[in-house]
Design goal:
This protein is mainly alpha-helical. The chain has eight helices and no strands.
Length: 198
């Protein structure tokens, strides 16, 4: 908690300095850490900031991708393979190599999907907006978990129905509009927003 608070507190002076130095200019706030030392001709500090940001971003991508690949392989792919009999069709008693291949393919597929999403979204979407999009998707699981813990009348069909409705609403109202003017989705869906008519 202390580490997260200290890291967040360090962002405040950088944000204030960026807003002051680049007032009236079209500088993406996500790049203030690099843009500030460049503006003051501090090459060494620019390189240091770039390496630190690159290291942090790479670590986040690796951890998130590996964790998601493990979830996909353990909870989706391997159960389907075991139920269909495909995993044991070659007479293997040890499925460790199969599991390892599934996880490697999952990592590749997740990384490719993330790259395709990045290429498809509207240019200039702030990182904070993408983060909020991800958190809002994860938040769909909260009602089912909390109600399942405290309400004895909760049932499987109700949880599945609520999750399906929530994920569908998230997909239509938040994910699709993030593509902006992309030709992948209809123009009507691209303009959907909670702020319409406000």
């Amino acid at each position: 908690w202390v580490s997260n608070t200290a890291t967040t507190a360090m962002m405040v002076p950088i944000a204030l300095a960026g807003l002051s130095v680049f007032a009236g200019q079209e500088v993406n706030p996500d790049t203030f850490v690099l843009a500030l030392p460049i503006a003051f001709d501090q090459s060494a500090l620019t390189v240091l900031a770039f390496l630190g940001g690159f290291s942090a971003a790479t670590g986040m991508v690796i951890v998130a991708t590996v964790a998601l690949a493990i979830m996909v392989s353990n909870d989706i792919v391997m159960p389907l393979m075991l139920r269909s009999g495909f995993a044991g069709s070659h007479g293997q008693a040890d499925l460790s190599q199969t599991l390892l291949r599934v996880r490697r393919v999952s990592i590749l597929a997740i990384t490719l999907l993330a790259f395709l999403y990045y290429r498809a979204i509207e240019a200039g979407v702030p990182l904070a907006s993408i983060g909020l999009l991800s958190f809002s998707a994860a938040a769909q699981f909260a009602p089912a978990m909390l109600i399942g813990l405290y309400w004895r009348g909760a049932c499987k069909s109700g949880a599945i129905s609520g999750l399906s409705l929530g994920v569908t609403a998230w997909f239509v109202l938040l994910l699709l509009p993030s593509f902006g003017g992309s030709s992948l989705i209809p123009e009507v869906l691209a303009n959907i927003s909670f702020n319409d008519g406000a």
